[in-house]
Amino acid sequence: MHSVIIAVFTAGAGWLLWKLLSDFFVRSPIDNIPGPPSPSLLRGHINQIYHRDGWRFIDMLGTRYNKVVKLNGLFGRRILYVFDPVALQQILIKDMDSYDAPEWFLEMSNLTVGRGLTGVRGEQHRKQRKMLNPVFSPQHLRSITPIFFNVAHKMCDGIEAQIGESVETVNVINWFSRTALELIGQGGLGYSLDSLDKPVANALGDALRELLPAAFEISEVQFLFKHLNKLGSPPFRGALAALLPMPTIQKLRELIDIIEVESKANLADKRTALQAGDDVVVRQVGEGKDIMSILLRANMAASEEDKLPENELVGQMSLMVLAGTDTTSNSLTMLLDIMTQRSEFQDKLRAELVEAQAQYGTDIPFDQLMNLPYMDALCRETLRLHPPATYIYRDSVKDTVLPLSEPIIGNDGSIIKEIPLPAETSIMIGGRAWNLSREVWGPDALEFNPDRWLSPLPSNVTDAHIPGPYSHIMTFGGGGRACIGFKFAELEMKVVLAAMIPKFKVYTSDYRDDIVWNLSNVMNPTVGKESMKPEFYVKLERLKENTKA
């Protein structure tokens, strides 16, 4: 028996070793695509791609190379970095059946948040998205706008209590993070994750807040998940993970267990309330308008063929919090950072908001709020210039050919008009490179210029037909796997700004020179390059009512 175990282990180790090293021995058409020289035989460009100070490397790809770039991953694995508009159309829309989320990404998503929208492919993904589409419609967002304003006003009350009548230094990202969590809690899950008036611990909210930073620590080896997932049964892999002497892995296991237990308990409470009738549901925090209440109702009414299983419903809950918290809070913080350095931006925004509040009331209705031109321009420009999520991944799921908008010169001097891609080719969508392209956006592409959105965009932008769902940019991805909640996130940003900016004047703090914006799964600011704690300090002054100053 002992010899059998050794033989099985040896065979498994040999298979894994071949999978890891086979890219060194197989030629690929991608080898002829220009790219920066690999600094490491085994690690490739991984150190630059996943370094917290990797912005310079990522931006260099967008300026030095011609829309497709060859990179190297671990163990010789090739990565095609793409920001060519025709290629993006092909990958994300025209030939989307030939490309999908990588297996390692699916396994990572399933491991961390369950079988939600990011953790499934093909028909199951389409089925989930079809059921979720109505809850992100303008009609539904219109109905939850008052709930969002209630949360934003609580945030402002908390800040007022903190600063009093003085000009005080405030860690604003802490307030934005807590507020985004509560907006998702009330608008998404239908219960409170952070009351904002006192520091009350919430197991689910705290675990989800810590999950992304912990996951980023193992980003360098994330592609191994698709291979490791084939080793034995889930209980076997779980037992194996428990034995690994790696603090990050053990922290991830602890967070994942908390998320699963808390999400299942919340789902059970929500189902019980729905079964008890509408009177019980409307007395809950989300008043029955939250995403999970509507999703559960739709799922209960769906045919057996269209019903989502329990584990996929649980996955949607965790995914909503994870996807909608740090992205929104960090984008708001970035915009505030910009407005402290250019005070005319916040002055114009405040004047627009005060005027709108005089016409429509303190809580500006959804349609009027979403169409305020200057606030819309500020949000669009922030999301263009500073996309919170840097990387979007795809794999070719079969042999295919990728067309280009214009020929490039290969390493061998040949003219390349299209790229043959073998199955399982790794692709990294260069959304940031597209958003910052001078060729597309003009000579001021790297400057923050909200006025570009107040007049017709240049034809270079509109004629490219980029597949992003929002404003001709790639911040929210594109195609069938584009971020389904981008309008939800936009509403979060605008409600918080509408509540905050008329009440407070924002100034640069004494910490500003020490603030570093770090590249991560979601960009985040810290005080200094060594800190791992998200912090961003501004000085806030409470304004008198209805002032435009």
UniProtKB/TrEMBL annotation:
<feature type="binding site" description="axial binding residue">
    <location>
        <position position="483"/>
    </location>
    <ligand>
        <name>heme</name>
    </ligand>
</feature>
<keyword id="KW-0560">Oxidoreductase</keyword>
<keyword id="KW-0408">Iron</keyword>
<dbReference type="GO" id="GO:0020037">
    <property type="term" value="F:heme binding"/>
</dbReference>
<keyword id="KW-0349">Heme</keyword>
<comment type="pathway">
    <text>Secondary metabolite biosynthesis.</text>
</comment>
<dbReference type="InterPro" id="IPR002401">
    <property type="entry name" value="Cyt_P450_E_grp-I"/>
</dbReference>
<dbReference type="InterPro" id="IPR036396">
    <property type="entry name" value="Cyt_P450_sf"/>
</dbReference>
<keyword id="KW-0503">Monooxygenase</keyword>
<dbReference type="InterPro" id="IPR001128">
    <property type="entry name" value="Cyt_P450"/>
</dbReference>
<dbReference type="InterPro" id="IPR050121">
    <property type="entry name" value="Cytochrome_P450_monoxygenase"/>
</dbReference>
<dbReference type="GO" id="GO:0016705">
    <property type="term" value="F:oxidoreductase activity, acting on paired donors, with incorporation or reduction of molecular oxygen"/>
</dbReference>
<dbReference type="InterPro" id="IPR017972">
    <property type="entry name" value="Cyt_P450_CS"/>
</dbReference>
<dbReference type="GO" id="GO:0004497">
    <property type="term" value="F:monooxygenase activity"/>
</dbReference>
<protein>
    <recommendedName>
        <fullName>Cytochrome P450</fullName>
    </recommendedName>
</protein>
<keyword id="KW-0479">Metal-binding</keyword>
<dbReference type="GO" id="GO:0005506">
    <property type="term" value="F:iron ion binding"/>
</dbReference>
<dbReference type="Pfam" id="PF00067">
    <property type="entry name" value="p450"/>
</dbReference>
<comment type="similarity">
    <text>Belongs to the cytochrome P450 family.</text>
</comment>
